[in-house]
Write a structure and sequence with these properties.
Order of helices and strands: EEEEEEEEEEHEEEEEE
Number of strands: 16
Strand content: 35-45%
Shape: globular
Radius of gyration: 19 Å
Mean pLDDT: 87
Number of helices: 1
Structural class: mainly beta
Helix content: under 10%
Strand order of the largest sheet: 11-10-9-8-16-15-14-12-13
Length: 250
């Protein structure tokens, strides 16, 4: 169950084009940031959303992965997940489907939930403050198999980025037979405000647009309390990826 601090009430902003309804096929999925499957997943302008004060609890709604949940998302009790948010909690808005948004939420421990939320409960956070070098620094976690550590290495604002990821480490049988796949990333780069990107070449860090497609290429974005990461799936073994939403942890 997701619980978090209560924040100040916010005014529901005019969402404009962000909330423009699109026609999606029945069974559209809400997946984590960076994952796309045309015709099956919803993607839209990325934004920071905040749970407003229209209700004390806002439950996540089921993805239509199982046949029994094919009609979700809707506001029926059958579509409600146990996990919920409270006013003030912030989410990454991935896209929209009618009266619902696809959102990612990471707890302060780095556990990530990706699913639907009612559109009426979420306000887009306007006028985000500028991102400074210090806002990147820390240990960032996404679930139990992805972690990134960012440190400042000189006064010019160049950052050291190191990460580890795995696939299958949560499966005891895979661990037992040595079938866990791993990956890593390492680079040194100066961010441009809220954006940082680089490639891993044979001789060290490369600018993103100079790296080959077979190199590990990573794009990062700071958004509110989150670090958004997208790679080209060339940063490790089969199925290993750093693509996800991360939260800074102690």
């Amino acid at each position: 169950m997701v619980r978090a601090h209560k924040g100040k009430a916010v005014v529901l902003v005019a969402l404009g084009a962000l909330w423009t309804s699109s026609s999606f096929a029945e069974g559209t999925l809400c997946l984590s940031y960076g994952y796309e499957d045309p015709g099956r997943t919803v993607n839209g302008p990325i934004a920071l959303g905040r749970v407003n004060n229209l209700s004390a609890r806002v439950h996540f709604l089921k993805n239509p992965i199982l046949k029994a949940d094919a009609a979700c998302p809707n506001m029926s009790a059958a579509c409600q997940e146990k996990a919920y948010l409270v006013p003030g909690d912030e989410v990454v808005i991935i896209g929209t489907k009618g009266d619902f948004i696809c959102a990612s939420y990471a707890t302060k421990q780095g556990r990530v939930i990706d699913s639907w939320l009612p559109r009426s409960a979420i306000s887009v956070v306007p006028d985000l403050p500028p991102v400074n070098t210090k806002d990147w620094i820390g240990r960032w976690q996404s679930g139990s198999e992805q972690s990134i550590v960012i440190e400042q290495i000189d006064k010019a604002g160049v950052l050291s980025i190191k990460g580890d990821a795995s696939w299958g480490a949560g499966d005891p049988e895979r661990v037992k037979r040595g079938a866990v796949h791993v990956g890593s990333l390492e680079g040194e780069m100066k961010p441009e405000g809220a954006v940082l990107s680089f490639g891993m070449g044979e001789n060290g860090t490369l600018p993103y647009d100079q790296a080959d497609e077979v190199d590990c290429k990573v794009q990062m974005q700071r958004l509110g309390p989150y670090l958004l990461v997208k790679d080209n799936r060339m940063c490790g073994g089969l199925n290993v990826s750093f693509t996800s939403v991360y939260r800074r942890v102690k």
